[in-house]
């Protein structure tokens, strides 16, 4: 892997994250370092409480480290203000969550257009067409004008993935995106991530899926808030 920061999609260096708890503190991530190159498809695995969500939130700039540095998509996140982080995130990161987090009162296509309205990167006149194109890309073009609650779980997650792609970010971060799906639907959603990775997108997915090693190019294992294993899996990255 190229050691140049400019070529790393993600460079986490000696990061510690603690949360205050009562009179003391909880260590959520403990002296963690991790480099991910552009184009990689990486799974983060580990038991509940091992620090996976904390790590993903640090990568997304949703949370800040207590110490250490986080570089993502050519930005030193620690140097950005809150509004700078929000702008950076809107252009560089697509987020996918376990429970989809679609807005229930907006149609599917309106949900996909929302990040475009925030980032103002896609011209207003192009937003609906782009959203429809993305819904086609994830296989639910025919659901565009429905409300999220009328879709199946798998369809809602596809809508959320289309929303994550709204501003064409180089990086997709997903926290247990198949955790609320049956195994057949979960496989189809992971296949969609693999397709998006084959198109050149860098993807980091936190997952409990058993056969994830056959899909991703690399598996990083967390135990007790530290990386204990970091393996190339042999799947095409
Ligand atoms: P995972 O996603 O692997 O289940 P988390 O990153 O959510 O793990 O949590 C790692 C550790 O940090 C756990 O011990 C958890 O209880 C603690 N933790 C996470 N977020 C907070 C928070 N906001 N406040 C206090 N403790 C937290
Ligand atoms: Mg978690």
UniProtKB/TrEMBL annotation:
GO MF annotation, one: transmembrane transporter activity
Protein name stated in the entry: ABC transporter ATP-binding protein
InterPro entries linked to this entry: AAA+_ATPase, ABC_transporter-like_ATP-bd, ABC_transporter-like_CS, ABC_transpr_LolD-like, MacB-like_ATP-bd, P-loop_NTPase
Superkingdom field: Bacteria
Domain ABC transporter: 10-237
Gene3D superfamilies in alphabetical order: P-loop containing nucleotide triphosphate hydrolases
PANTHER family: ABC TRANSPORTER ABCH.1 (PTHR24220:SF86), IMPORT ATP-BINDING PROTEIN (PTHR24220)
Cellular component, GO annotation: membrane protein complex; plasma membrane
Keywords: ATP-binding, Nucleotide-binding, Transport
Keyword Transport: yes
PROSITE patterns reported for this sequence: ABC_TRANSPORTER_1, ABC_TRANSPORTER_2
